[in-house]
Amino acid sequence: MESNFILELLGNNIWAYLITAAIPLVFVVVYALVAILGELKIASWVQDRLGPMRTGPWGIIQPVAEVVKLLQKEDITPRNANKPLFNTAPFVVFTGSFAAFAVIPYSSKFIPADINLGVFYIFAVSSFTVIAILMGGWASNNKYSVLGAVRSASQMISYEIPTSLSIIAIAALSNTLSVSGIINSQSGWFWNWNLLGGQGSAIKYLFIPFLLVLFIVYFVGSLAEANRTPFDIPEGESEIVGGYHTEYSSMKFAMFYFAEYANMYVVSAMITIMFLGGWNSPFGDFMNSPIWQAFWFIAKAMSFVFVQLWLRWTLPRVRVDQLMHICWKVMLPAAFVSLIGISLLGVIK
Amino acid sequence: MNIIEIVFYVFALIIIVSAMGVVFSHKLMYSAFSLLFTFFGVAGIYVLLNADFLAVVQIMIYVGGILVLIIFGIMLTTKVTDVESISGSTGKLIYLSSAIVSAILFLVLVYMFNTSNWNVYTTPYRETTLDMLGNALLTKYVLTFFMAAILLLVAFIGAAFIAKKGK
Amino acid sequence: MLPNEIFDKLKIEFGEEIISLNEDPGYEPSIKVEPTNLVDIMLFLRDEEGLEFDYPSCLSGVDLGANLGVVYNLYSMKRAHKITIKVEVPKEAPDVPSCELVWRSFDWHEREAYDLLGINFVGHHNLTRILLPDDWEGHPLRKDYVQPDYFHGMKVPY
Amino acid sequence: MSEIRDVAIDLGNVHTEHMKLNVGPQHPSTHGVLRLMVELEGEIVVDVVPHIGYLHRCFEKVCEQNTYTQIVPYVDRMDYVNSMNNELPYVIGVEKLLGITVSERIEAIRVICAELDRIASHEIAVATFGMDAGAFTPFLYLFRDREKILWVLEKLSGSRLLYNYIRIGGLMRDVYPTFKDDLRDIIKTVRETNAEINNLLNDNKIFVERCANIGILPPDVAINYGASGPMLRASGVRHDLRRVDPYSIYNKLDFEVCVGTGTMGTVGDSWDRNWVRMLEMEQSLRIIEQAMEMITDSSEDVRAGIPKRIAPKGELYSRAENPKGELGFYIVGDGKAKPQRVKGRSPCYVNLSIIPEISKGYMFADLIIILGSIDIVLGEIDR
Amino acid sequence: MGLLDRLDNPYDVGDNIFLGTVEDVLNWGRSKSDWYMTFGLACCAIEFMAVNAAHFDFMRFGCIPRPSPRQTDFIIISGTVTLKMAERIKRLYEQMAEPKYVISMGSCSNSGGPYWENGYHVLKGVDRIIPVDVYIPGCPPRPEAFMDGMVQLQSKINHQAIFRKRKEMRPEDIAAIDQRQIELKKLRAEYEAYRIEHLDLTGVDNVAK
Amino acid sequence: MIPVGLNHFLILSAILFSLGIFGIATRKNAIMILMSIELILNSANINFVAFSKFNGFNIDGQIAALFVIILAAAEVAIALAIVLNIYQNYKHIDVDEIDNLKE
Hints:
The structure holds 6 protein chains of 6 kinds. By secondary structure, chain A is mainly alpha-helical. In chain A, 65% of the residues lie in helices and 0% in strands. In chain A, helix 3 (62-72) packs across helix 10 and helix 6 (143-174) packs antiparallel against helix 8. The two termini of chain A are 29 Å apart. By secondary structure, chain B is mostly helical. In chain B, helix 2 packs antiparallel against helix 3 (52-77). Chain E is mainly alpha-helical. In chain E, strands 3-4-5 form a 3-stranded parallel beta sheet. In chain E, strands 1-2 form a two-stranded parallel sheet. Chain E starts with 16 loop residues before the first helix and ends in an 11-residue tail after the last helix. At the C-D interface, strand 3 and helix 3 of C face helix 1, helix 8, strand 6, strand 7 and strand 8 of D.
């Protein structure tokens, strides 16, 4: 495949596939450490304080200390919990999050698996997370966990619908579901990005409101799917203690933790792919070599991770019924209308 | 043994073991979560059969939709705080007789499959079936497609109505 | 309305059950009543035109040595006057009619007085301990109360 | 715990069995060690039973064993976020029993201290309320401001939280020379931050949606339950002890009694309760500005009036407007150095008893909001 | 047991250099990443909130609040422990995962504080029910005092010996540890018997009861 | 070993099918029966897709499988609604006990 330089270098053998699979894993681990530090530091920045300062210079190796700590914590399985499911859930949740990384590109020369249904696939594997959360929450045998798990599951499957509508709209605009196809359809300057109507004549600017609506629908929906504020009801501290991971400790908790951060990157990467031109440089061919493309992609995705962290420390939390109201009565009609508008644009183009 | 075969046997094993888990497990929740692996394995089999769209749809609808619904159903109809929700099985006689019946069924099926002269001819590898599916759905099967859409709509309205009527 | 007017009004209505009015300097004006018909007195205080004590300020149980006293501090938002009603019951049979239905505020106050002083509010719907654990023994605010040595295996005195 | 039954799941009109959920005593949003037994149907609260007493520190017994002056530090520890306001009714009560009056200057300092602590208390109330709604940042902004108030009070009394500053018949010590400058600084900062908090929290659409029309407390119910403070005023009852039953120098000061108007929803909802606190902070600043002008003569000895022997005979119910509501002390003195009985009528105790009344029929998340809007302090409830 | 009793000679980590280094790394991780439980009892909790807040910023030490005891490393007993609360605190402590530490903040939880004499309902010192690592005096302690207590706790963690070979121990230590094990087993058996006899076990293990 | 061909998939589906039949026959719980039906539908789907692949990539098989999935979604929604309704009336979902119509 031309979109995976490792396969080109090493040929089509098992080692090439292993290396291809290992790179996202390393990326997830490094990214999670950065994101954990980012969360602490951004929280501190928003809240007018310093944040961790005593672990390395300005506390930058704080996440390492946390991982070291979590590794040696006692691993508690509550006596009344359902042990097989309780112990399986963290692995399933991490599998679900990590599976999405298979199709997330880094640059035009490296997409671990450039399958034809890329965005659709990301969307599908996220349902593993739902099941795993239900599994963990139920197996904990704790009412807070069950409440958190049920809330989480209902929230995630509800918000799948508006987000999938915006994915369909983008597919209609780009005529493909593959990640590389969608990104290539936005190549060139930044006004070719899907957020600004994709490539095409000036008539596309008439449809920008629809795309903006879709963008907002997708962004809000992705916040809900990643359980981030203002939709962090499943783990809302003030109501249900820790939500579905109340009873988890040590590395099993760390896996939930990692999966949450991995999910944040996945949804940010999806926004980047679908609306912001993916790895394309905003300035045409300027700084558009494969290495720079990796920079652009990760920078765009990380900026959305940043926005998610920022929102977390700014907004209060919504209530369960308000959450459903937003989903079914606001976002779904808006997404439908926009879908029709975008389809019109697709026809015109 | 090439990689396709390894993958087939791995997925087949996953499917069979987890399906047995579904059927033989005495705890409802175990059955439900075993079903997750069955669906996952079937999705893998679809990928082997070059049905990539179906594989993704399988995961999305079965895992993300149907399984969640089933788990909700279990949670609503059993005591959730009670971890040991028994699925309830019939007596030994029925157990034995149904085992025999299904074994016979299985043997008959295998015999049929092996003796039938299937008209098998393979075509070269095709990367995606998405465009073919789309074309077929909107041309040859467009009526069925709309019927399915209406069926879904009616089913969901009906489901909401039935569930609401209780009490 | 001044305390003596309130006293007169009560005296006319209830007669013998209203015992005395205390207006000594240093003391807040208080009316001492018999506990037998307390709920009616309280209802009269709450509803009678001109009195209208709609706001229950405080209910205190007091250990007076031989007797246990209950002190009701009432306030009227409409008339902006206040009065103190006092009840005394013997320690052996500390039964006082419950006023929780007159002013809902006294629900918890009465439970507290029961908890700490052992005053039995007759007619209270849920007269259980509120501050102390359910299996606590004795009523700590009585003057003759002795600290327990152990509670659930934990040593109590220093 | 045999009453624990099924977990119910909210699914439209599907009626499921009730679930009993035990919230607390260790729970992130019970503001201490309150325990609520909540009965849920789905997510709807069917019944709430508060269980208190996890912080019962035997205040009333301790009072009977200590002299009148020694009680002041224990009074501090009742409502530990606004000790000055606790000391005020107690000290005024004992002074009334003894029949002594203090000079206007001392009263002015007392009022300034009380109002500063009222602001600090309201800041904690708003901050924790925001935290209950999921907004963590306002908490830190408000605590940053609160530090400034604590510095001033610390300079006055030597302690950060529990001051023991207002003494019977006087004060612990006189104000320091730059007191007024510090006050002006505080007034400026608090006004700035409150504007910011209004932007960040009180006018936030999500926050308004969470709080408006939640936990509505009708005025007649509030009065019958004996509610007081912002809880009562948010229901539209213009009742403030500083106005209707003035003590200290409040009758010489010009300030408004803030009531809930139902700006965002119904009168007496959770948002109103929070908003009344925001408005009262502004009024407290006005009071401080006026009282500052009364501290002119600096030659007076604030300790001169402290009596040598405090052994009053008599009894009275002394009350004052605490940030949480009407804090009263029923003091019975029998002519000895130790009181015969001191009963604290704590506003939170009464306000909390309303929670079963106003939280039925709302969702579980709303219950947390309602609890946050009442602004309870367990030290005062359990004493 | 056995983890904390080597503080008299903190630098003696044995002759195994590798183990010594690993131990340092593990101790470093534990001391720098302390998650504490959001749990407040009384007056000291307000001071503790102030420590959390922007001005004193407890997070500088790497301390992050967690609502669930399963994920926390240390608990701060901030305030008066009453007899009604004591059993809950004990249970909370038992729910925490090892390694776990306790900071007793303020006179009340150190010794009963102002309530030591007449407080019939106050536990005179939280160390009567759970082991305490650091005591912070004061009523309430100033935030600076609390931070000093945190530094003390971190240095205590840093000097812990994790790997300690049995053969290197003194015989009386081994005897003491064995004795302690037997005692613990007995206690647990008794406790289980008590639980089975006196308590309905439905949902007892739930957090935050 | 025989290379993986059509028969492998067919036998796999047969195993799944007979397991599903066994589940339906032996279990009393309505949701358990639903899950067994899902197994049977999945086995049918494997057949459809396998025939689609080994019959010269005929897309009709996949379309049929797609419709089966849609059907399954509708079926589960309706069936669970009925189960819930039954549960509210009977407080259990044991299919052998639900025989009111007989009487």
